[in-house]
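A note from the maintainers: we've had questions about how concatenated examples are separated. There is no special marker in the raw files; a new sequence line simply starts the next protein. For clarity in this README we add a label.
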Amino acid sequence: MKKILYSLILLFTTFSFTSCLDSNLDDLPEYGDADITSVSAVNYRYFSDEKSPVSGEPIVEEVNLEYTADIDAKKGEIKIKVTKPKDFPENQEDKLSKSNLVVIVSLSTAARLQPLEGSSKLGVPSDWNKVNSYVVTSASGQQKNWSIEVISLTK
């Protein structure tokens, strides 16, 4: 009886892990765009006076800054103008500068972004006093160089 049960389990497992797809199917096209499609956010992060009840460490707060972004896809250039919002914490106004902004961008489908020449990583507080350069690589392997610059910060 056990042999029959084990044989049925083996038979069921064998057929459940096989594919019904035919071979020689056409490959799906790979995405060829290597663009930065938008600036998703520009933020400022700081340690608040409040402490975590679990770790006792200061809690990190984040403020969404107002911004406009001019994207020139042909040139591979993005110029960002940042403005402090009205509800910005007063005790952080002196610390807000282009040297500690967080910039987040969106890319073409399935593309990857890599900083060039010592440029800042995106998504973390970084120095935006200079032009930062990146290479975006599409899923098909095409590459395009991009520059991102915060041209102004109005407090």
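[label: protein 2]
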Amino acid sequence: MDDDNGRGVSFAPSPAGTDSFKDAYAQNRTDISLEGLDWTPGGVEKSLQRVFLYVQSSGKAKSSWYRRKKGPRQLVSLYIRFASLVVIFLGGLCPLVPSDSLRFNPHPFGYLLLATGGGLFLFDKFFGVSSSWMRYMVAAQQIEAELERFAFEWLKVQASRTETDGSSFNPIPLITLASNTLGQISAIVQHETLEWVGEFQNNQTQFSDMAALKNFRDQKKIGAKT
């Protein structure tokens, strides 16, 4: 069974109930609940299956969100950067074109094209088009790596179980592993959000500084004229 990137992540938490577990995971269910878990000897296996599925489905939902949101921003970023490079290149060529060979002077258009290209770069920077899809990509990869680590750690604990009565198995290590994994995934999401907030505030500060500098220069010019 593969995830959105074709990675194999079909891990069964225990031999019992494996088929039903795989069916639920294949459906990419996001309605898994941890309510009403049965930790009696007869119900511990199914409860552990639900815990494993809850962690995997929760993490996969977050990873899928980042990958889904990444696509449009990545496309817009590529368009903006390609257009800006083309415009700047054309702007640099304008002064090299002999004005005698044309019916108009192309030199002034060079400044306009250069300013337009620079404006596209500023648009990309201030609105975080390129940086956002890069953050989303990193966050998705980190979440997927955390899910793979969780799956293998879960299997390691399962492999160490002795062939004895299920009542002798302590589920606490697996529950702790699930809790820690969810905490790591939440930390990844929080870190990405804080990066976005920091970038947004920094761009606002730079924009305000640019506006204040322009206003200062305008006031200085008016004072010089008077």
